[in-house]
Design goal:
Blueprint: E1 4-10, E2 14-20, E3 26-33, E4 45-46, H1 48-66, E5 73-80, E6 86-89, E7 99-100, H2 108-116, H3 126-129, H4 138-148, H5 152-158, E8 161-164, H6 166-174, E9 184-186, H7 187-190, E10 196-197, E11 202-203, H8 205-211, E12 220-222, E13 225-230, E14 240-246, H9 247-254, E15 263-267, E16 271-278, E17 289-294, E18 302-309, H10 313-321, H11 332-337, E19 346-348, E20 366-368, H12 376-402, E21 409-412, H13 419-429, E22 433-436, H14 441-453, H15 460-466, E23 469-473, H16 479-496
Helix pairs in contact: 9-14, 10-12, 12-13
Bound molecules: adenosine-5'-diphosphate and SN-glycerol-3-phosphate.
Residues 11-14, 268-269, 313-314, 316-317, 329-330, 332-333, 413-415, 417-418 line the site of adenosine-5'-diphosphate (ADP).
Enzyme class: transferase
GO cellular component, one term: cytosol
Pfam families: FGGY_C, FGGY_N
Length: 502
Amino acid sequence: MPQYVAAIDQGTTSTRCIVFNRQGQIVSLAQKEHKQIYPQPGWVEHNPEEIWKNTLEVIALARIKGKLSVQDIAAVGITNQRETTVVWNRKTGKAYHNAIVWQDTRTGELVSQFAAADALGQDRFREKTGLPLATYFSGLKLKWLLDNVPGLRDDAERGDALFGNMDTFVVWNLTGGPQGGLHLTDVTNASRTQLMNLHTLGWDDSLLDAFTIPRAMLPQIRPSSQVYGTVTSEVLPGVPVAGILGDQQAALVGQTCYEPGMAKNTYGTGCFLLMNTGTKLRPSTCGLLTTVAYQFDNQPVHYALEGSVAIAGALVQWLRDNLGIIEKSTDIDALARSVDDNGGAYFVPAFSGLYAPHWKADARGVIAGLTRFVTKGHLARAVLEATAYQTVDVVRAMEQDAGVSLRSLRVDGGMVVNDLLMQFQSDMLNCPVIRPLITETTALGAAYAAGLAVGFWNGFDDLRQNWGIAKTYEPHMEEIQRSKLMRGWQKAIERSFGWEDQ
Ligand SMILES: Nc1ncnc2c1ncn2[C@@H]1O[C@H](COP(=O)(O)OP(=O)(O)O)[C@@H](O)[C@H]1O
Ligand SMILES: O=P(O)(O)OC[C@H](O)CO
């Protein structure tokens, strides 16, 4: 009898394969980074072929490391960086263009044009999709590809060109590729395209018309947990593909936030706070997204409010790769601890404009409050603090929208190993921050979705038993100090607005 479930986590910076046991513990893990391609300022691309090759490699490596036979694996779940847009040929499997990554800002002008054409402005499609017009979502990226890649629109209309986010691309390749690969996505990923109607949970003709997207290129929308088919590729032959979730929704599932009002924040490349709002759609009036949280087979959809922050851990990488101030991401801890505070410096990482709750495509990064006193230690501190302040802005918007105060926050993602950041986060939110035993919640959520579909786990109670606390950070900061820091942040963020002419 199979003892494990595998998850493929196709993230912004790397692809991971993680194998879990029934207790949700990691049995084996393999990871490979892929290249970040920056063809112009503001543009971010990935090579889809490199990502598919890495996917095969990490699956094979995870099996070798864990000494796992195919019979050991009950099912595989997929989770992915959301919104990143790829278009490929149904017959050859070749991509027409590099994938356009969620952080890419090339559609900034399209955002302005679409917003100017309607009195609702950036909120033109919000009622139907839960999303403001922004460079972030797939619809405009796909339009850009159709308008700029020669021959693509004709192929798309003929049904020869297929669109997908990374989940769709990976599943199509895993299940046969040009030889009958399944062209599908799940409802959480579809909710990030700005082409799906949140009320009907189907592709919406009026949205497709507005963005001039041929319906023939779109994948089928399916629940997040269901047996879709089996792997044909030799790395996991015959194993059921049984779960798909966008990575932030997967983390919500992995954190077992199944009750309305439960929330988690994932600190990776960006930072994404999701609160389960139950089976009713809850529109946001405070700059958050309304999105699909998950849909388990034959059960109603659950929705979430989301506060998306584009740049969090990516700022640590920028300090490492672009300025060379640190050698490894983990070095930021010691550098930030070499000083007592930020020395008056604030770093607003509006590299891709600002997402929630501001939605300013024209914002760009600023460092404010510099004096001759400021050292690289203060800058390191400002870098970490930027993630915490952005989270505070999102939490306050969430509290206003949901009409409740956050009592505690469950956290996960690559940055939560940083104690300084987590303590500062708790201080700035003035509420406990809870790090669970298993912080690989994204992959775990995808494994849960797949495992539930094949009966490996029987229900939410099995999953809740797997969740436990590793560490709780309690707030210690005086209110006067908290207010002073937030005032500084507020001034800094306003200075980032309106930088780019659009
Ligand atoms: N000790 C640390 N302190 C702060 N940030 C860190 C630390 N270790 C890793 N990071 C950041 O965490 C991010 C990686 O998190 P991860 O969840 O793997 O990201 P993703 O899933 O978006 O690829 C990187 O941006 C990295 O800079
Ligand atoms: O791959 P991550 O963890 O950076 O997550 C990216 C988000 O899904 C973008 O919406």
